[in-house]
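pipeline stage [seq->struct] | target=EF-hand domain-containing protein | organism=Aegilops tauschii subsp. strangulata | residues=91
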Amino acid sequence: MREFDIDMNGLLDREEFAEFIRKLTAESLCAISLKLIITLVAAPALALATKRATEGVPGVGKVVHKVPNAIYAAAITMAAVLIQRSAEGVE
């Protein structure tokens, strides 16, 4: 907040506060957008790619092949969400 206290009086006036909120919101939106892209695009694509790759593995391949793509992608996406949440707790 000191960065936005232009007049160095220890308080943020209306304009200083507005600029602080604009920057805070922009940074938060960027972080949320990146996580959303990972969750909604990258995780399902990765799930389908790994499903195709594991279908040829003896023993595992038959089981993976029987799981519908939508269920498999949803499971991997949920795992990605859980990993993101656990990583947030570490930071």
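stage status: PASS
auto-comment: The chain has a mean pLDDT of 83. The chain has one domain: 14-88.
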